[in-house]
Design goal:
Blueprint (H helix, E strand, L loop, with lengths): L1 E4 L17 E4 L3 E2 L2 E2 H4 L1 H6 L8 E6 L18 H4 L4 E3 L6 E3 L3 H4 L5 E8 L8 H4 L16 H9 L9 E3 L25 E2 L20 H5 L2 H6 L16 H13 L2 H6 L6 H7 L16 H12 L3 E5 L9 H25 L6 E6 L3 E2 L11 E2 L3 E7 L6 E3 L1 E2 L6 E3 L2 E2 H11 L9 E2 L5 E2 L14
Parallel strand pairs: 5-11, 5-12, 8-16, 8-19, 9-10, 9-11
Antiparallel strand pairs: 1-2, 3-4, 6-7, 8-15, 12-15, 13-14, 17-18, 20-21
Helix pairs in contact: 12-13
């Protein structure tokens, strides 16, 4: 149990001078949707054998970014398909990307572009980018676990002061754009530790650190008190709560350490590095997410502090109108922050251990509509991967002259996730878990392999 001290002195003191009246015992603790004691059950189950620390940063672009205006330009197509942007060369001879990504172009030797991502569905949701599965179809009992949940289950925390599965995804008005995935049939213990709220909500990090906090200070932290269910904890008559006090004590390592809060505090970062990422915009983009480039830096700080999987969402890319105007606003911001993240990983010698993926749920129509926008196009999309010890500096797959469909090396979403699991050191051939009906399930469909060109 957690004991938080109040004022000492007065009658009824213990031998250490602390009043019985000034003890608060906290048993079950939750932040957002995550039970902290449950979070670390996996660590006990796995023991102390996990010393390696590989990580993934998953950057989700909600709404479906236009593949033919980013990393698969079609200069030979008619103007109503080609659009307004021109390609530029990169640090890898023969690879060209959009002129709005000049900083990323200089980091291309650390990147791999996949121009032939297939298997997208029409609706707007993050599922395929965080679980690899279509959660709206043939979902198992308990739901599909996200990539972070599988990693949490299989590898546990890298240390007792940082959750393995962390989300910087903002809650969005269009709810599916702000979903980092859940624990699914693996359980709440492996759900993401959510740090960001929605519009009008504050970050939970402000109410997270209990270190050296007295009873009086704690009582003033209304937000934290709402997150701590200390007085209404009921025993589970089935015995499922047995041993939870031990897990509570471990979980409180997260809250009583400053490690997580420090990772979120950019005032502790070199100002020159912060400036390299650029300045974000905290305004929520309609029903999407803010354009917070700083979160890419925070993601690096989180994995450096011990997180294994960090997800984040950036802006709103559902541009049915004003595609090129919006691109000129958003793409340079993404360019600066993504290039800075890659440079950062390389300079810190993290580029062999930390994988980065940047993608959306589908692509956009080749033909520009009457509102100068592009509509939904599930037939093909694009993704950018970086670092992670992969064979970078290459393009995988291609689309036809109009960017309508893959003509070479179509890549499924699950193949990308299989590659990320591989980078994390997870052997998919040895992994099997059971859903709530006792049916065997796997992180990706059987037969799916990592992308051979990358590994």
């Amino acid at each position: 149990m957690l004991t938080i001290l109040g004022r000492s002195g007065g009658a009824g003191q213990y031998c250490d001078g602390v009043s019985r009246r000034n003890f608060i015992k906290v048993g079950g603790m939750t932040l957002g949707t995550l039970s902290l004691p449950q979070l670390l059950q996996a660590e006990a189950a796995k023991g102390e054998g996990h010393r390696s620390h590989k990580a993934v940063i998953n950057i989700f672009l909600p709404g479906g970014p236009p593949h033919q205006d980013m990393w698969d330009l079609k200069q030979d197509a008619p103007s109503e398909i080609r659009g307004e942007f021109r390609p530029i060369g990169t640090s890898v001879p023969g690879i060209e990307i959009c002129e709005l990504f000049p900083k990323l172009a200089k980091q291309m030797e650390h990147c791999a572009i996949i121009r032939s991502v297939v298997g997208a569905k029409g609706p707007h949701y993050s599922d395929q980018c965080v679980t690899g599965w279509d959660a709206r179809n043939n979902e198992p009992a308990g739901g599909w676990p996200s990539m972070g949940a599988w990693v949490s289950k299989l590898q546990g925390p890298a240390g007792n002061a940082m959750p393995p599965h962390v989300s910087l995804m903002y809650k969005t008005r269009h709810t599916p754009w702000g979903e980092p995935g859940a624990g699914g049939f693996l359980g709440l213990a492996h759900a993401p530790f959510r740090l960001m709220g929605g519009k009008g909500e504050t970050s939970k990090i402000d109410n997270m650190v209990l270190k050296d906090i007295t009873l009086e200070r704690l009582q003033d932290r209304a937000g934290l008190l709402k997150s701590i269910d200390s007085l209404q904890r009921e025993l589970d008559s089935s015995g499922a709560m047995d041993g939870m006090d031990a897990f509570t004590n471990q979980a409180l390592g997260i809250l009583t350490s400053s490690k997580l809060a420090d990772a979120m505090d950019l005032s502790k970062e070199d100002p020159a590095i912060v400036e390299r990422y650029g300045t974000g915009d905290s305004e929520f983009r309609a029903d999407g997410a803010p354009k917070m480039v700083e979160n890419l830096l925070i993601a690096r700080r989180l994995v450096e502090a011990g997180a294994r999987v960090v997800s984040l969402n950036f802006s709103r890319w559902d541009w049915h109108g004003g595609n090129f105007k919006r691109a000129r606003q958003d793409m340079p911001m993404l360019d600066q922050a993504l290039a800075a993240l890659i440079q950062d990983l390389v300079e810190r010698n993290l580029d062999k251990d930390v994988s980065v993926v940047c993608w959306g749920e589908f692509g956009r129509t080749p033909k520009i509509n009457a509102n100068a926008g592009r509509d939904h196009w599930p037939r093909v999309s694009t993704a950018l991967l970086a670092c992670g010890g992969m064979r970078t500096g290459q393009v995988i797959g291609s689309t036809n002259r109009l960017g309508e469909y893959a003509v070479d090396r179509p890549i499924q979403f699950q193949e990308i996730l299989a590659t990320l699991y591989h980078n994390l050191g997870i052997d998919l051939n040895t992994v099997r878990e059971f859903d709530l009906r006792g049916r065997p399930q796997y992180p990706v469909a059987q037969g799916i392999e990592p992308i051979r060109e990358l590994v």
